[in-house]
Amino acid sequence: MMMELENLKYPIGRFSPQPSYSESDIRTNIQIISALPSKFINLLGNWNAEKLNTVYRPDGWTVRQVVHHVADSHMNAYTRFRLALTEENPVIKPYEEALWAELPDAKTAPIDLSTQLIRYIHLRWVLLLNSMNAADMARTYTHPEAGKVFRLDEVIAQYAWHSEHHYQQVFHLAARNNWQA
């Protein structure tokens, strides 16, 4: 049962950073980030409220909360990149994602608000990511809760994983319930 819950939580496994990232790794990760909005829109396009209010795992978030979480998370990521590219190793502002997911808008707002937000944030973010050179990739920010300095090439990998991680949570729910169109 414990392994089954772990697979529901982490259908693609947990994020595991590499010691370094090649230009090819970075390009692949940017493509994964770029693809997420279309993948979510295509998967969730005609889901009704009942499906959107279904939890993807026991004691997990609803699909609606997952989509709103991705919008919140990726807005923060985009801002953190801009800070890291314009300041010397800035200390970023963490946020309580679990509490954000419990706010009324995360539990009730139509998902189009967040899928469109993800779409447009990703357009800007991917434009920024594709403009970065090797020196930019080596820039950093400090996450005070993690007590760690993160290089932007690693953060790109982490958000590629984050994109696919949450997409697969919802995709696997759809597969288990035969909800694919």
From TrEMBL:
Gene3D superfamilies associated with the record: dinb family like domain
Q: Which Pfam families match?
A: DinB_2
Q: Which InterPro entries match?
A: DinB-like (IPR024775), DinB/YfiT-like (IPR034660)
Residues annotated as domain DinB-like = 37-170
- Which NCBIfam families does its entry note? PRK13291.1
The name this protein carries in UniProt is DinB family protein
State the organism of origin: Dyadobacter jejuensis
